[in-house]
Amino acid sequence: MTDSLATLQSRRTIRRYKDEPLSRETLEKILLAAQCAQSWNNSQCWELVLIDDPEIRKKLQETVPSQNPAFRAIVESSTLVCVCAKTRLAGFFGNDPGSILGDWFMHDVGIVTQNICTQAHALGLGTVVVAWLDHAAAKTVIQLPEGYELVSLIPLGYPEQEARATPRKKVNDFVHKNRFGAKYADH
């Protein structure tokens, strides 16, 4: 088995890609990783829309502010994954939300997104999660029906160059023991 911690520790956000298509086999491995994602009550609320049509990608790029560091990645990556979710499914018992947090689709979509990005990295690909965009306009471009939300776009492709490691918080800076403020390392 591969060392999953090493894969997670070496993964970096990639915004520049080679002009090289993905094989169907490679894409299938990423989609299988998405399929494995856990979800609330096994609701599997996610829907993925794969975009390789250059004109549709250009229209989606128009929904992303040009100041977004990932603006070019929308059209330069090999494939664009639109991560969507069916609303009022995850975290609901019938029509009643299971907690004060209401719809849990963001939790489940976060997990499937992590699986996609981690598997892509394990296969030598790069990704960046893009959520700074005009969601309503992007939903129109991909013809997303009522009852679904477009959460993010994930450009996917072979990195143009190796990314540098970025500083990470120390574990003791974000882990608390038994109550907030009691640092994990102090116990």
Folded structure, characterized:
It is a single chain. This protein is an alpha+beta fold and 187 residues long. It has a single domain (4-186), classed as NADH Oxidase (3-Layer(aba) Sandwich). The protein is built from six helices and six strands. It is globular, with a radius of gyration of 18 Å. The two termini are 33 Å apart.
Question: How is this fold's topology laid out?
Answer:
Layout: H1 4-10, H2 24-35, E1 46-51, H3 54-61, H4 73-76, E2 79-86, E3 92-93, E4 96-97, H5 105-122, E5 126-127, H6 135-141, E6 148-157
Antiparallel strand pairs: 1-2, 2-6, 3-4, 5-6
Report the CATH topology name: NADH Oxidase
Secondary-structure element sequence?
HHEHHEEEHEHE
The strand order across the widest sheet is: 1-2-6-5
Number of strands: 6
Instruction: Identify the CATH class.
Output: Alpha Beta
CATH architecture: 3-Layer(aba) Sandwich
- The domain tally reads 1
Question: How many separate helices?
Answer: 6
Structural class: alpha+beta
Helix content: 25-40%
Largest sheet: 4 strands, antiparallel
First CA to last CA: what distance?
33 Å
Rg, rounded, reads 18 Å
Unreliable sequence segments: none
Give the full name of the CATH homologous superfamily.
NADH Oxidase
Average pLDDT level: 91
- Which shape, going by the Cα principal axes? globular
The proportion of strand residues reads 15-25%
